[in-house]
Amino acid sequence: MTTIEKKLIKYNFSTGNDPKYIVVHDTGNPGKGADADAHYRYFNGGNRNASAHYFVDDHSIIQTVEDANASWHCGDGKGQYGITNYNSIGIEICINSDGDYNKAVQNAIELVKFLMKKHNIPLDKVVRHYDASRKNCPGTMSSNNWEKWNWFKSQLKEEAAPAAGLYRVRKSWDDAKSQVGAYKVLENAKAECDKNPGYSVFDEKGNKVYPLPFSAPEQPGETQPEQQLTLIMGKTEATVAQMVSYALKSNANPLLPNCTIEELAQVFIEEAEVEGVRADVAWAQALKETGYFKYGGIVLPEQNNYSGIGALNNNSKGEAAVFESPRIGARAQIQHLKAYASTEALKQPCVDPRFHLVKRGSAKYVEWLGYEDNPNGTGWAWPGKGYGYSIVGILKGILQEPKESKEATDTGNVPQWQKDAFKKLVEKKIINSPEFWEGRLGETITIGEVMGILANTL
């Protein structure tokens, strides 16, 4: 097994964890150089509102959070499936396009085996991020009804071959004459296999155990066909309900002092339609830029700036564009996206203070919004490696939400004093998303949600 390198981050974790599950993710970041160390540096660079215990690539395993502490890797599920940040270990598999995905997966398998033994975690408690929140993660394993994930789980079972059995290195199980070695130790057989292209490792029963029985996922990059990329201009696919639901899964109390999240989503729909920009793309970008409206970076919530316009890398807190209303802030972002995605004139007066700085039509795809991913040598984010791809990942999550809001829970059995208390909290603006909470008066909520509401009273 690859040696675990411990490089603990200073942020983005909580104390206390009782590991009962191992949750497997992939990073969703195919940018060149986005290996384990790059993710360590990112999550150690400030408040990211997310993290994992381990990052695994084709040559290293980096531990960023102690097993005894909680990394922030599956909180989006809010514990409704029994899996939380406080009873699990999160593993992120890197999918950087300049790495060997198959080797990264193999390293992850060995790490999971190690952690299963260390914490006495059974196979049925090794799960996907999907199992904790219904997010499509690890996305590289989700195709064909999770065929690759099922194979991944099969590799965690105890070896079926007897102790005296041998691992044979051949071109195929039936081609015994091609055999170049037989080994008692699987790792030795793998090493021999790596020296012989076109060969595989087979156990005593003829089962192929190495290399992975599937190819690496197609890696987005400079050679990815344009028809597979995501246009910024076009018809919005997501509904307001989907946009709001996905945002609230990661932050039940968005810091939006000048409107509700439902109102803001509707504004995005309206403003984007005017300019022909996809509102769901703009919304996904806003969630990324604001940390799901948690903020914490340069931009302040009261600035109505949802995309970091004018927030340059060396600026101090608050040194970014300020817009007079949520609508104008959304309009500026959508105009800025149109500047990159199209050469068409704006339909409304320009409110984007940096519109004139954009090379028009230089990034018609979301994936090209990062400077280092853009073949035209420009981009919204600098250096921006993987920036657009991460927005696409958020967009995919949005589109998996129900198209309509869930029907409100029957509140007939909720005492009147609780209904009155809810109304008062809304009037005092302690609860700023009443449409979300009103249907949950009869439900239990998490401690984290209570803390979020209490924080609004300070």
UniProtKB/TrEMBL annotation:
Provide the reaction this enzyme catalyses: Hydrolyzes the link between N-acetylmuramoyl residues and L-amino acid residues in certain cell-wall glycopeptides
| Name of the top EC class for this enzyme | hydrolase
Q: Where is the N-acetylmuramoyl-L-alanine amidase domain?
A: 10-154
Spell out the Pfam families in the cross-references.
Amidase_2 (PF01510), Glucosaminidase (PF01832)
Q: Does the keyword Cell membrane apply?
A: no
Instruction: Write down the SUPFAM superfamilies for this protein, in alphabetical order.
Output: N-acetylmuramoyl-L-alanine amidase-like
Key word Cell wall biogenesis/degradation present: yes
MF-aspect GO terms = amidase activity; N-acetylmuramoyl-L-alanine amidase activity
**Keywords associated with the record:** Cell wall biogenesis/degradation, Hydrolase
Q: Which residues form a coiled coil?
A: none
**Which SMART domains has this protein been placed in?**
Ami_2
Question: What's the protein called, per UniProt?
Answer: N-acetylmuramoyl-L-alanine amidase
Q: Which organism is it from?
A: Desulforamulus putei DSM 12395
Could you tell me the EC number(s) of this protein? 3.5.1.28
Xref: InterPro entries: Amidase/PGRP_sf (IPR036505), Amidase_domain (IPR002502), MGlyc_endo_b_GlcNAc-like_dom (IPR002901), NAMLAA_amidase_2 (IPR051206)
The alphabetized list of GO BP terms reads: cell wall organization; peptidoglycan catabolic process; peptidoglycan turnover
